[in-house]
Structures
1.
Amino acid sequence: MKRIEIDPITRLEGHGKITIFLNDEGDVENAFLQIPELRGFEKFVEGLPIEEVSRVVPRICGV
Amino acid sequence: MKLKVGIYWGAACGGCDVAILDTHEKLLDIAAKMDIYLWPIALDFKYDDVKKMEDGYLDAAIYSGAIRNSENEEIAILLRKKSKVMIALGACAHLGGIPGLANFYTRDEMLKRIYIDSESTINEEGVIPLESWNVKEGELDLPRFYNTVKTLDQVVDVEYYIPGCPPVPLQIYSALSLIWDDMLPPVGSVIGAGDKALCESCPRVKEEKTISEFKRIQQVLPDPEKCFLEQGLVCLGAATRSGCGARCIKSGVPCRGCYGPLDDVPDLGIKMLSAIASVLEPKEEKEIDDVLDTIVDPLRTFHRFSMPASILRRKKE
């Protein structure tokens, strides 16, 4: 099975790669979008003083 | 001859890339001086294009974002190999930045909260991303999520640092112009920023600081003309490098240190604690402790952008 990797995907905010598997006829058998990115705001804003949260979460996305 | 440059982001928000774009018409000057060979946010080059380059092919690599996972580190090592000069752009690459707040937790604590316990997640089987996973067509892989967030210079040699979250666009431009004007300072320098503490260029009036209690900003109506610290509001301007134009202070909120420490100061947080200790009103140890206890969440305040670069580095395990 032939494999095509598009890494990284571009012109967007964030990280991603696409892996495409082609069968013997050259048709797409399956394709996967993978997000190789995680920073974890879900965890590290826990317990942060509420007045500081609004200064931290804009850094989720700066685009 | 035009300079060859690669621009990349590790664990970042894209704000540094946007700050480059926010140089507005100066972008035309940048485009006249530099050809770009990698810039995921804006141009369609792939990692393979970089891997095919000869070592040292690029004149400069500009890396924003922290080192959060193995992909961030691999691309940092790749760009280091392919570039004559490595530049850390922004607080995350420079100091660890906001993603560095994860260093108050372990990898397992992070993954459990994010993928299993979060209120918006239904994950009864407790699945977390694996580094390698077999599907029927073949194997898929993802980067390793590290236990500890690192700065760029903790994984590769870095020649220059452009600080800030985000860096001020014109400061980026002036830093880049040092490259094409061949005016780069000694290796290890912070470029595109000031060399004095932010306090010295702060527009607010400073009188005599004597602090008897720290307050939270919602508990007071701050005087817009007066020094935040003198009003009992923690402001990191005394320990933070200038160059931002006091943009937070002019917006009515105290400094949180995104431009990092001054030269020869290894740890912004400790420097700030020392600055605060010198302006407390009480002189007896017990009373000093009582005043310091009124600072809410001191570690994540003093090391808001710099935990991975600090002497502490991370929470003890």
2.
Amino acid sequence: MTAMLDLLPRSRHPGGEDHPEYPPQVREAMARGRRLEWWSLVWLASVIAIMGLVTGQSQAMRTAWIEDCLSLLPPAFFLLATWFESRAPTHRFPYGFHRTASLAFFAAAAVLLSFGSVLIYGAVATLIRQEHPAIGSLRIAGEEVWLGWLMILALAYSIVPPVILGHLKQRPAELLNDKVLVTDSEMNKADWQTGVAGILGILGIAWGFWWADALAAGLIAVSILWDGVGALRKAVAELVDGAPRDLRSDRIDDEALLLGERARQLGARIVLRETGRVITGVLESRDPADLGRITHGLSWRVRDLSWRPLGDRDL
Amino acid sequence: MAGQGILGGALAGLLALPASCDLPRDPEGTLDRLAGGTLAVAVVAPELSADERQALSFLADDLGAELSFVAGDIHSAVDALGRGEIQAVAGAIPKDTPLTDETAATNPVGPERFVLLLRQGENALLLAANRAVADAREEDR
């Protein structure tokens, strides 16, 4: 038991401050990001509870509900990863815990990918088997109310909190250069598409088009899979020490390109990688003083660059 | 933002439609065909309970259909239901029956909480049947 507890890093950085290596606006963005992610967990829990009450036999509704459960993962991983990051390096982890975010991101991406695949299979199977969804009714205030209308109301509610939170998370995500937070923000902002697809699926059933529900479920599943694929590409690029990528796309990060250009102009070679939100690497050249020549005007993200003599490899 | 406003307005309009458009509708048009037709019910127990009879009778009255009973075993009845040859299956079917994989169950009726089985996906008929079941429950009190 105590051996397991040893896995958790105990101490904060000397001086008790979290992330002393980051400038104040980044630390503020971190605090804001954490607050928003706690709020996300609360609001998503309310959406999940309300949708869970009315889910019933609609496949689109079930798929949307699963997607909402999955969207609890990025906030949870962000909170966990930023907590680890705030711990000081230990004897067993002398490089510290910057990479926990990358691991968390990879885990979230893998989950999205698996669920997306399973749900697409489910939707296609339903369409092939030509299953017609049965949606019943509830007695409310002396009237028999079709459950489809309640499902639509729940789906409409499910659109609101994630879209608002997604927009609020955008700024801290950019200030922090945090891939988990930015992916979470984009998934939240796109959540309205899931809600609309679900609503259109149920309206389709109301009009007698039995296939509308499975089709909507399939589209929602494709979007989950797409999110998973995009996130997996970014996560893998970082975990295998790929060149630092831009926050939102697969392009190489601008600062990394700048350092590469500066190194080339000196006849040197630089290899860079990302560890969490930090860029680090090695400059290979003939003169150790070259390191000082390329590291002016860089952001807080570039840390701990080292130097080694240029080898016999071709430049 | 304007796009989202238009979307909201469209959704609100769509939600207001059901009152005027007699939604939901049946994919196979079962409810429409029953008006002035025959409501064929397969009875899969030796006898129907008073509550089940009453619910079916209310449903037939609401639809303006003639009630007709047919005896049979549960499996052939469910098959016939799926082909549209009959419109309901009744007879001491419990609420948690596994047959809901292939059929649609109404809300439970009577103290024993039995359900009536209808063709899966015919949601207009299911709504009408649930109304009849609720009316039968109120009659009981």
